[in-house]
Design a protein that fits this description.
This protein is α+β, with helices and mostly antiparallel strands. 19% of the residues lie in helices and 24% in strands.
């Protein structure tokens, strides 16, 4: 019986006037097996709340039940959704006319209306959401979810809703506010193209310098950037430091919480240093190399003449033919004419252990740390070196060298003040003539090409920390006034059925709106949300892994477009089908990926719905996602021993020979990918501007019991007469009557009966 039901559900939906936005969503939801079984088995009747003033008294649920029966009946070629549209018009004026609307907005209103029709919660309950500053995330999340469940309790809360963690931090006083808010769908921004970030990698094992490249969305957190770099160069993040240098001085060192932006990168060259010690339980020190006597210049700084030159007596960095050249060049040279040591080599940022914070050990550590220097020497004599202290960038140095009398406390104090250690090489004998070029090679990552934008990039953009603009200042409870703040959203709990909305319609300004037709690659299987979620220890294995079962597509532009859908039912028959209003066609999985994807429908991987028993169950009995669990993972017991009800096999109406109806429906299977230009369709319709929508909903951190319990009185009749079938057909306009066609066409259409 299960296989029989899986092979139906190929009925198209009539377009009753710019309703392709509605048809694509209805087809995707019809292939959500748990939702389908809830209505086809009649279980929704036990949950209808006719007294809820926010709902429609169960009318929407009943009409949706009738619609699903028609869509999953093999008797019909096309189903008319007029009744559902009419009843939703009472809920929202958007659907009272025949103008094109937004598909995602229709999805939000439909699910919210069905939820309120089945809502068993007390909508009169009021509460204040708790603030999680200084509290355990799990406790605050459970408290917030418990408050939400007091007002909202239905199949949709348990299966379509999740919680995300919202963290707001005041930039003035550091106050942190953490709340856990419910969501029914995720609206993700379309990720911008990643920017190439070039950096030089200094290895611990080799004196050679590697030129590398990584792609990232700027600005980006230093910890995220280091993670990407770590994957490319195969070195643990704990042993990497990220800093910028300019003219052999350190411009800045990035901590894990810092933000890397174009402004930072324009200040100097980005360097990644591999350290012998890990960052944990280590002290970070900055090291700059210099020579006591600047190198002799081989040509005149003004005219470029070589020969008998004389050096500037003040800085000793540049040479001239005579005083006339010196006077001409002084305007350009005066800003650099300072009596400073000449910096050489590449600055270093190193980790040392607390026990090594002694002068002799520090010097030994630095001498063996593979400092990148490559001198041109007149004599084969190793230059003497001494250690001094400089300012935080290393641009100015103390003239006095550190001695054996220097105490570890003085070194610790210098590190605390973020001073720089300067290795000064003695060049008083003029044996150091200059600095040779470094041995630089291109790392494999430098040849990487711009990666394609993916759904993971959209999740990354959605969950990254951002500074709130001045127009959205936060009322800090500690400062008691509006302040600039940062905000970050991360997923805390994920629903069994995840809906992802790609924000393709965006406003360029208050007047001009545009659609982004960029291809966003998304996985049809194994979507893993762990990276974008709060790390939790009490979730079962596979909790964050999802498979795709439906896609709502939008073709065309902002002002003229058309909606279609791709959908498949989980189970033995996982054939993908394209639903274009009345037309239903088999397609292969590769066709599902396109730049038209607008709303994505995912189901948790290890959450398998079984219609053969009339229940919803997981892949493994010992780890059922539908069993009510406590916070520590222990199952709660519940009493299901009702003598008057039991589990029944899912049934569908048996087919009878009725004149004018065919008993089999043929669907074409293409031999190659289907390519259709929807932009040139004669049925092109006006599309409404996309807007930011919000929907109330949440998913419990403790997944609750979702067995569908069936009473014998709730099952549909095993057989339907011809009259029963005609009573379920909604009246349609004369121009929508279809003529029968032969069985060898792409789809079989039948003449609709009129009341």
């Amino acid at each position: 019986m299960a296989e029989y039901l899986d092979n139906t559900g190929v009925n198209g939906l009539a377009n009753i006037g710019n309703t392709c936005y509605m048809n694509c969503i209805l087809q995707c939801l019809a292939h959500c097996r748990g939702l389908r079984d809830l209505f086809l088995l009649g279980q929704f009747k036990q949950q209808i709340n006719r007294l809820n003033p926010i709902g429609t008294g169960g009318k929407t649920a009943e009409v949706y039940h009738t619609l699903l029966q028609d869509m999953w009946s093999s008797r019909r070629g096309t189903t008319n959704p007029q009744q559902l549209k009419s009843i939703l018009a009472n809920k929202s004026d958007l659907y009272s006319g025949f103008q094109q609307q937004d598909a995602q907005e229709f999805l939000s209103i439909l699910l919210d209306t069905l939820h309120e029709d089945l809502n068993q919660g007390d909508i009169k309950k009021t509460f204040i959401m708790p603030d999680g500053d200084g509290k355990c995330d799990e406790d605050v999340a459970k408290e917030s979810w418990a408050f939400h469940k007091q007002r909202n309790e239905s199949f949709f809360v348990e299966n379509f809703m999740g919680q995300y963690k919202s963290k707001v931090s005041c930039l003035e006083c550091g106050k942190v506010s953490i709340t856990f808010d419910p969501y029914m769908y995720l609206s993700l921004p379309i990720a911008k193209d990643k920017s190439p970030v070039e950096y030089y990698f200094l290895s611990q094992a080799s004196p050679a310098v590697a030129r590398c490249k990584v792609y990232a969305h700027l600005p980006v957190g230093a910890n995220i950037l280091l993670k990407k770099i770590s994957e490319d160069i195969k070195v643990d993040c704990d042993k990497l430091t990220l800093f910028t240098v300019s003219k052999s001085t350190i411009v800045g060192v990035f901590s894990a919480t810092d933000i890397v932006s174009n402004e930072n990168l324009n200040q100097g060259q980005l360097i990644v240093r591999e350290n012998k010690n890990s960052a944990e339980n280590s002290i970070l020190i900055k090291v700059v190399s210099a020579v006591s006597e600047p190198f002799v210049q081989k040509s005149c700084a003004c005219c470029g003449t070589t020969g008998d030159l004389k050096r500037c007596l003040r800085c000793r960095k540049v040479s001239y033919c005579n005083q006339e050249c010196q006077k001409k060049h002084y305007k350009n040279h005066k800003s650099d004419c300072k009596a400073l040591l000449q910096t050489v080599g590449i600055p270093q940022v190193l980790y040392i252990k607390q026990k090594d914070l002694k002068l002799d050990k520090l010097q030994s550590f630095l001498s063996s740390a593979n400092i990148h220097l490559n001198f041109v020497q007149a004599k084969k004599v190793k230059p003497r070196c001494e250690l001094r202290l400089g300012n935080n960038t290393g641009a100015n140095y103390d003239s006095t060298a550190l001695t054996s009398n220097t105490k570890p406390s003085e070194l610790a104090n210098a590190i605390k003040q973020e001073l720089t250690f300067v290795l000064v090489y003695d060049n008083s004998s003029k044996n150091l003539l200059g600095q040779q070029d470094f041995d630089i090679f291109d790392h494999d990552s430098f040849r990487f090409h711009q990666p394609k934008s993916s759904l993971g990039d959209c999740f990354e953009a959605f969950t990254q920390e951002e500074c709130l603009p001045d127009s959205e200042l936060w009322k800090c409870p500690r400062c008691n006034k509006l302040q600039r703040a940062t905000k970050q959203i991360s997923l805390y709990s994920c629903p069994n059925y995840l809906t992802v909305h790609l924000k393709r319609f965006q406003a360029k300004n208050i007047i001009v709106f545009d659609k982004i037709d960029k291809l966003i690659s998304f996985p049809a299987n194994n979507l893993d949300l762990l990276e974008y979620s709060v790390r939790r220890s009490n979730v079962p294995q596979g909790y964050y892994v999802y498979d795709l079962y439906g896609v709502a597509n939008h073709y065309g532009s902002l002002y003229r477009g058309h909606y279609t859908a791709y959908a498949r039912l989980s189970g033995a028959n996982s054939t993908w089908r394209e639903f274009d209003d009345r037309s239903v066609t088999d397609v292969n999985e590769n066709s599902v990926q396109s730049s038209a994807a607008y709303v994505l429908f995912y189901k948790r991987r290890r959450f398998t719905e079984s219609i053969s028993r009339g229940i919803l169950s997981s892949d493994e009995d010992e780890e059922e996602f539908f069993d009510a669990c406590t916070g520590d993972g222990r199952k709660e017991t519940s009493d299901h021993s009702d003598d008057n009800s039991c589990y029944f096999e899912a049934k569908v109406p048996e087919r009878e020979e009725i004149p004018g109806f065919a008993n089999d429906i043929n669907i074409s299977t293409p031999t190659s990918n289907k390519t259709t230009s929807h932009d040139s369709s004669e049925n092109m319709e006006l599309d409404e501007v996309d807007s930011q929508k919000t929907a109330e909903g949440s998913s419990s951190s403790d997944v609750s019991c979702d067995y569908v319990k069936v009473g014998s009185s709730d099952l549909p009749d095993s057989k339907l007469t011809e009259d029963d079938c005609s009573d379920r057909i909604s009246p349609i306009e004369d121009e929508e009557i279809l003529n029968p066609v032969s069985l060898d066409t792409i789809q079989i259409h039948f003449e609709d009966e009129l009341d």
